[in-house]
Structures are given as C-alpha cells and as structure tokens.
Specification:
Largest sheet: none
Number of helices: 7
Helix content: over 70%
Radius of gyration: 19 Å
Strand content: under 5%
Mean pLDDT: 88
Order of helices and strands: HHHHHHH
Low-confidence stretches: none
Length: 181
Amino acid sequence: MTWPYWLKRQTYRLAVVMGLVDGILTAMLLAAQKILGHGTPVDFESALKVAVFALATAGFVFYIGRYADLRSQLVRAAAQLNLRKRGKLAATRLGRMVLGEAVVEALVSGSCSFVSALLPLSLAAAFPAAPWLSVLVSLFLLGLLGSVLGKTVRGSPGKWSVGLIAGGLFMTFLGFGLRIM
C-alpha cells in the first residue's frame, strides 16, 4: 500500500480532499492578520476555535452536498426503473444507507478540516516570534496535496500544486484585508 492510497480509493477521496483543503484555507482566511504578524499572536485557544469552526462548517456543508447528491442518484435510479411513485427508492433501506454514508463522509471531511486548520495555527502559537512559519507550512501542505492529487487524477502535479498554492495566497490576502481575527 502506498502512502497516497487513501486518495486513490474513490470511497472517501472527496471528503478527505475537501476537508484538508477547507481546513487550511479557513485557517489562512480567518487568522491571516495574526499569522502574518499583525496584532496579537495566535494562541492555542484561537487555534482551537478556528479548527472547531472549520470542522463544523466543512462537516455540515459536505453532509448537505453529499446527501443531496446521493439522494438524487436514488431518485434517478427510481425513474430509470419506472417506479410509479417518485422518491420511492429514497424511502427504502437504500435511502437510510445513503443517509448513513453521507453522515460518515461528513465526519471524515470535518475531521480532516479540523486537523488541517489546527496544524498551522498551532505552529503559529508554538512559535509566536515567527507566525509567518505557519503560512509557509500551509502553502507547502497545499502544494504537496496538489502534487499528490495531480498524480492521482492523472493530471499535471505542477498545475495542481500551483492552483492550490494560489488559492492559499488569495485566501491569506483576503483574510488580511478583511481583518477577521
């Protein structure tokens, strides 16, 4: 088993990728002022609050999107099977399975978001004299994730890395301008 095995498996790929990227970008957006050395330094309490925020938003948004997608697949399948009652398939055991699958994937996405938001901000809290280190680590992680994703989906690892790093820089500048924290 290779280390990007979890990205090669279709089952949780979307949840893991969305969670990791969302957590890093949320941390960079919300704490941009602090991680760029303006205002008070990041403390562990702030890092934990941002990580919980990332967990809650990523988990909820992922759940809604994934459940709607899976349920619409059941509705389409029912139409293709010429079932008379619309939504009949979604009201069966398959519907409950879809609900459970969406909940599990939302938990995976939220957990990944929590960890990926907490890591760079905890680094900034641990090294208050060099808060910019968390920006570099975040950009490195986005670039690494982009490279792995590029290889996994048979795309250009360089383009994926540059795209994710550009998104990270954009969120940092946006957060700096908005002065959220």
